[in-house]
Structures are given as C-alpha cells and as structure tokens.
Description:
Blueprint: H1 2-6, H2 34-38, H3 81-85, H4 91-104, H5 106-110, E1 112-115, E2 123-130, E3 133-140, E4 146-161, E5 172-177, E6 182-189
Amino acid sequence: MMLLLTLRGTPILYYGDELGMENASIPPEKAQDPFGRHDPSLGRDPQRTPMRWDSSPNAGFCPEGTEPWLPLGDDSGKGNVALQRESPRSMLGLTRQLLALRRDSPALRSGSYETIEDAPEGCFAYLRRCGTESALVALNFGARELSLRLPGKARARVLVCTHPDGSDQTEVEHLRLRGYEGSVVGLSGTW
C-alpha cells in the first residue's frame, strides 16, 4: 500500500485492498464469473468476495440466513472494517494515513521521482520532490534489519511508518528499517 500510494501516477485501490483482504478459495459449484465457470484459472471470483464489514454472520454483507453471492473465505472474523476502524495500526489505518499524506503533500501528489541507487539489497528507496518539499520513501522487502545511508545530513521526520512504534529521527545520516518495514520520511536540509 505504501508503494502504491507514494509512487507517481494515479493510484487505484481495488475493493478490499484497504483491509488487506486475501483471495478466497471458491469451489467450482459456487463460481459466478462466466470465465471462471468455463476455465477456473481465468476466474475473477477469488478477488470479488463480499466485503467483510463486521464479525456478524455473513460479515455484515447480507442478513443472517441469506447466502452471499460468493463464499466469504477463511478469515471473515479477523480482517473486517469494524475491527480495523478501531486500530490505527491496522491495514485500514495505514491506508487512511497514506491517503491523507498524499492528499496534503505536493511532493507525493505531483512531485518528481528519483530512485536512491545505493540502497542496500532488499530495500527500494526513492525521493519525491516538489518545490522545497521532499519526501523519502524507503521499503524493506526482507526480514533482516537494514540501514539506508542518506547522502549528506538531512533533517528527517517520519511521516508514516508501517511499524508505528518507530520514533521520529532527526539529523540522521542513516535511516534504520526493520524487517518488512516501510517509512515515508519528510526531509529538509542538504540532500
């Protein structure tokens, strides 16, 4: 989600992405998609399962006793809107933070893009700039912690982080990223 909402271009979220919904296994007899009925490998049904609104029967998608048009999948009680709405640490909370940051940041909305070439292996990092505003996006795609060296000293402030217990870092030469952590960092100073 962090990659999608900080890259250039128009981001597109599909139904359930904001919750981190996973594809469901659809038995052939429950398939609705005409392509999937003909060839299950072409079916779109695993991505189009009902939205999980709450922990009630049928996940709040339809009344109890009514069969939803597709099965809910295995995690219907874990990742629903009602549960995630209450936690800023949820996927929905992260998505909302990123959408608000993109809306308020000229650098993320329409700024230039520059890849950070000397990022450590497993880290994808890039800079977005617009006028005097700069944002560094750093994503660790591996399990081990790594450190991203910033060229020169910069004042940095973590704006959004996938691990929200991280502290703001200022006057940094290196940005520490734990395993599978992503950060959007506002920068000022020499870059």
